[in-house]
Amino acid sequence: MTRRTHSSTTEPTSSTSTSDTPSTSPEPRLGDRISLLTDRRGVLRVAGVVVGAGALAACSSPPVPTASADSSGGAAAAGGTPTSEVPVGGGTVFPDTMTVVTQPTAGTFKAFDAVCPHQGCTIGSVENGQIICPCHQSHFDATTGDRVSGPAPTGLTAKTITVTGTAFTVS
Question: Which one of 86, 90, 126, 171 has the fewest beta carbons within 10 angstroms of its own beta carbon?
Answer without folding.
Answer: 171
